[in-house]
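REVIEWER CHECKLIST
Item 1: Sequence provided? yes
Item 2: Single chain? yes
Item 3: Sequence as submitted:
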Amino acid sequence: MEEIKLDVQLRSQVGSRKIKSIRRENAVPAVVYGGENKPTAIKVDRSNYERIMRHHHGQSVVFRLNVMDGEKKLKDYSVIVKEEQHDPVSDSLLHIDFNRISLTKELEVKVPVETKGDPVGVKRDGGSLEHILWELQVVCLPTKIPQKIVVEVGHLEIGDAIHVKDITLPEGVRTKQDPDTILVSVIPPMKEEAMAPAEGGPTEPEVLKEKKPEAGEAKEGEKAEGKKEEKAEPKGKEKEQK
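Item 4: Structure as written out by the authors:
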């Protein structure tokens, strides 16, 4: 994978007020971590960054950051995206953390898992494709990071599954993930009895009612309680309960 060049501006001032000002400029505050250097505060042009990320996913892209001070280039780094922070309501990008990397050292990154095809168990038998693992942790050189892992699912019937051990990774790429981890599976359709209530609607549980005592007739419990009350003497100003 080739590095994607991205010009960023050095950020000399930090703080909540300055960050708000940066966002009004259609830029995103960011920090570069890692390596022997101290963290570097920068700001990234929002439009350029989002345009690039529409065709890539998180850690599957390697950037060559050109750190600028106005028109002057100060330094450059090879980096990957460590983390993005988004607004929980609008999903607007708020902040980016980058990690400095070496192009000659392996690193561990997450790569998206995508499916290809329509499973037989879905088309023919009415089952459902259950996508369980959306990202696969891989180890490789930065130049070998795959943009995505594509899993062919067209042959799957109901009850079939694809595990990590079943996929073939590109040359130079390996994973430390448990080989028995399920990526996708085809599950049977829900039974109609479980999906819809029986005809006539749900039945209410039967409520058993006691037979009302006839006039002059008391329940056994009331008779026993009456006998106790006759023997018991009221204490103080407590009211007699019936």
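Item 5: Key structural point noted by reviewer: The chain has a mean pLDDT of 84.
Item 6: Recommendation: ____
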